[in-house]
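ok so i was messing around last nite and threw this chain in just to see what happens. nothing serious, just curious
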Amino acid sequence: MIRYLKSRELFAGIDRMPALGTPVSARTFEVTSPSTGELLAELPDMGVEETRAAIDKAHCAQPGWAALTARERSDILWRWHQLIVDHADDLAAILTAEMGKPLAEAKSEVTHAAAYLQWYAEEANRIYGETISAPSTDRRMLVIKQPIGVVGTITPWNFPASMVARKISPALAAGCTIVLKPAEQTPLVAGAMFALAQLAGFPEGVVNLIYASEGDAIGRELCSNAKVRKISFTGSTEVGRLLMRQCSDQIKKVSLELGGNAPFIVFDDADIDAAVDGAIQAKFRNAGQTCVSANRLYVQSGVHDEFVEKLAEKVCQLSVGDGFDPGVSIGPLIDKRALAKIESHIADAVAKGGIVRCGGDRVGMEGTLFQPTVLTEVSRAMTVAQEETFGPLAPIIRFQDADQVVREANDTIYGLAAYFYASNLKRVWRVAEALEYGMVGINTGRMSSEAAPFGGMKQSGIGREGSRHGLEDYLEMKYLCMGGI
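result:
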């Protein structure tokens, strides 16, 4: 049984709640802990038939859900928010067990998930149209906004609670119904959240969950089924491209939050101690397994040595271990492939002249724990400077010229998040405007908020999540021209 779990009923019911539907086959798959390898649950392994049935349920439920008043939808979202808050400790325990992040981080994520539900419970009441001055006195022209319809959503393993809330709360607020497929590595916290959604009072068919060990067939059905009007996906750019192609035949609306290769720039006028703390936050949160993790740390020559010394000293003090253990800062990587990737990036860098200043090794021979690592003398020829590591590895690149570092920071197909530290106001404005990224953290290593638009430029995605802009992605704009008035 999952440690520190108080509500056994919440966990026990996630494989048979109404939102799950009835599995067609007897196939199952196992969910295990990345920290211990312990079997956590055995869930029904669903496929195309179950997905199609869930889409049909969502399609039948959508007109009734859209017909409710904004206040009625808001009230149900508020109840769901409160249930998430009331069960935050249990949801955090489930999250840590299946994903591995430290319990304090998991609790913070659950709180963040609840904040999205609260935000969109409020925004449900703020879906406004507009009136337009007509060219003649016998016409009236106006714009209304209506829900797009059934939404297919696919969420990642690295933030399995907050991504569920961030994707589906604006859709539900807008009057859409949902079919959600969580990552196969981390389906349990999504299941627990959907069980709470049932208690909150969502009508039958409004929220639907698909468990599956493989996502390809589910994704194809969501993209090809004409009853699904929109796809929202968070994951790799490669899969995002595939889903976009699959949606193209129906010109289906897509929201994509994809890969990143975030630069973290420290200029010579920065507060170095603040920059070190920000780098630790931006790089090592969730063991570096975030799409907005700092992936390339550029430090200007005048402060390079001071920054490296202070960063390495603090990183060496970070504790690695099981997410349930007290004082742990860095949990396990999600699987063996993630472990192999960080090892290959370090080996490639060292072979090309990189120096490991801290960490660089596995912790133990079993499991997927890896020491937080600081790497210096990094050049653009190294793999780590070109690819997203998705692990606790901080490669530091020395730079001289401000214009040059902005060019290098922008020299990537990705454009999700960027960070920089500086105090000169002129520099702050110019660099912020020049960076080709959807989100820029200035003198901070953490910028996510339910009130702010989250999303990227270039091949890091399409659309925005969070904020009032996140609601617009689930609404259709309709122009009404009324004559003879």
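not much to say yet. DSSP finds 15 helices and 20 strands in the chain.
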